[in-house]
Amino acid sequence: METMLRVLSEMNINSTLYAKQFRSRAESGDTEEMWSYVLEVSTVICERIQYSNTPSEMEIGSKLLDYVNRNYTESDVSLKSLAAMIDMSVSSVSKTFKEVAGVNFYDYLSRLRMERAKELLRENSGDMEKIASTVGYENVYSFKRAFARYEGIKPGEYAQKWDGAG
User: Fold this and answer.
1) pTM for this entry
2) Which of the listed residues 19, 35, 53 is the one where a domain comes to its end?
3) Which has the closest alpha carbon to 73: 138, 127, 123?
4) pLDDT, tens digit, 9 for 90 and up, residues 87-126
5) What is the DSSP secondary-structure string of 104-123?
6) Residue 43 phi/psi, 5° resolution?
7) Rounded to an integer, what distance in angstroms lies between the CA atom of residue 45 and that of residue 48?
8) 135: confidence class by pLDDT, cuts 50, 70, 90
9) Average of per-residue pLDDT across 65-93
10) Where is the HTH araC/xylS-type domain (predicted)?
11) Measured CA distances, 49 to 44, 52, 65, 88, 138 (Å)
12) Does one domain contain both 47 and 68?
């Protein structure tokens, strides 16, 4: 019990109350009650350790956001890959991401990809297949559909609009 009291003290938990409770149980002579209390205190210590070692939702969300910001051009970035990377369920990753980013994962990823695609289209940086690949799409048809859904016009029309303006 001395070791447990020392650990409680090191964890900034007032060990005096626990010491008094333990002493009263020990003095009662009821060893079953004493060991039950030791188990209870051990549980308190373990829960506190687990809580202190668990990263907060904000920390996890920030790491997810940072990862997506750095890797959005990779075609394999998905909720499933993020969940596997940090050993969480897909639904937990989705919820955490939305809490931190303010929008759901797929809307955020699409926005990053489409904003980069618009830059490339304005710069006239190559053909559609190259742009699609550069922003994380495995095929040009998926890119064109996503762009039209996001921007309201086809990527070719967007590029022409900027060609005429430039």
Assistant:
1) 0.66
2) 53
3) 138
4) 899 999 999 998 888 899 999 999 999 999 999 999 886 7
5) -HHHHHHHHHHHHHHHHHHT
6) -65, -40
7) 5
8) very high
9) 94
10) 62-161
11) 9, 5, 27, 20, 44
12) no
Residue 96's domain spans which residues? 57-165
CA distances from 63 to 17, 48, 66, 68, 160 (A): 39, 24, 5, 9, 38
Question: What span, in angstroms and rounded, lies between the C-alpha atoms of 48 and 44?
Answer: 6
Pair 104, 165: CB distance under 8 Å:
no
Examine the domain organization and report whether 82 and 128 are in the same domain: yes
Q: Count up the domains in the chain and report the number.
A: 2
* Co-location of 31 and 81 in the same domain: no
pLDDT band at 166 (very low <50, low <70, confident <90, very high): low
Residues 18 and 71 in one domain: no
